[in-house]
Design goal:
Layout (H helix, E strand, L loop, with lengths): L2 H17 L6 H12 L8 H17 L1 H12 L3 H32 L2 H21 L13 H11 L9 H11 L4 H26 L9 H29 L2 H20 L1
Helix pairs in contact: 1-2, 1-10, 2-6, 3-9, 3-10, 4-5, 5-7, 5-9, 6-8, 6-11, 7-8, 8-9, 9-10
Keywords: Antibiotic resistance, Cell membrane, Cell shape, Cell wall biogenesis/degradation, Hydrolase, Membrane, Peptidoglycan synthesis, Transmembrane, Transmembrane helix
Subcellular location: Cell membrane
EC number: 3.6.1.27
Length: 268
């Protein structure tokens, strides 16, 4: 395997793993990183799908105890587990419905560096505004998130179909607007990511099955492992950081990166 391709693959995997669960848009970062690096991965959609699955698998591993406890609780008809599971399903549905309906348009029209740059800046400003004016939280654990709030968070997630907005950013900030505390908002976003990203990956596989190509499986494996390890390392420290310091640093990072990207696009 070409050494240049290896380090580019590792960098793309690092970008995916570090950004997937932060409010900075992993898709936007991947688009910009591939543009800057001139990265040409394996043909088809396999590479992008697999590295996303690597990142989501890391979160499934980190929160395996809560997942198992919820499954056991649902089987035993425990009211708390049933409500939490229902909240995740309800939050997932809006993006599932709209994503299927708008999938082709989103992929063909919105996936470009200019859209990403603008969305990064607008999203950064939105985070600063929400952090400044968010009301005192009334939900401080995952089991306190009610079904109506879950639906609102799910509707906010639909904004993330625009590359650069950030799935994590839209769901976390949506939760903050509806008075969920920072750590719980982040963790609810992680759990919502599981069906959302797995569903999106399965749908991408279905839509692109005829053009999928597993040629370059070594590159795919490197991207998967790198994304998994990086996501594994970043999720827990992220929750601790935002619990103490908030989301301001991510907002300013988004604005700076978006402005830099726009400048490079104009100069290109």
């Amino acid at each position: 395997m070409d050494l240049t391709l290896i380090w580019k693959t590792v960098l793309i995997g690092v970008v995916e793993g570090l950004t997937e669960f932060l409010p900075v848009s992993s898709t936007g970062h991947i688009i910009l990183a591939e543009e800057v690096l001139g990265f040409q991965g394996p043909p088809g959609k396999v590479f992008e799908i697999v590295i996303q699955l690597g990142a989501i698998l890391a979160v499934c591993f980190l929160y395996r105890q809560k997942i198992f406890a919820t499954v056991q609780g649902v089987l035993k008809r425990d009211p708390v587990s049933l409500r939490f599971a229902a909240a995740i399903v309800i939050a997932f549905l809006p993006a599932a419905v709209i994503g299927v309906a708008a999938h082709k348009y989103i992929k063909s029209v919105l996936f470009n560096p200019t859209v990403v740059a603008v969305a990064l800046i607008v999203g950064g400003i939105a985070i600063l505004v929400i952090e400044r004016y968010a009301q005192r939280p009334r939900m401080k654990s995952l089991d306190e998130v009610d079904l109506k709030t879950a639906l609102y968070i799910g509707l906010c997630q639909c904004l993330a179909m625009i590359p650069g907005v950030s799935r994590a950013g839209s769901t976390i900030m949506g939760a903050r607007v509806f008075r969920v505390d920072r750590a719980t908002a982040a963790e609810f976003s992680f759990f919502l990511a599981m069906p959302t990203m797995i569903g999106a990956s399965v749908y991408d596989l279905y839509k692109n099955w005829s053009s999928l190509d597993w040629h370059g499986s070594g590159t795919i494996a490197i991207g998967f492992v790198t994304a998994f390890v990086c996501a594994l390392l970043v999720v827990r420290p992220f929750v601790r950081f935002i619990s103490r310091h908030g989301f301001g640093v991510f907002a300013w990072y988004r604005i700076a990166l978006g402005a830099l990207a726009l400048a490079l696009i104009v100069m290109h």
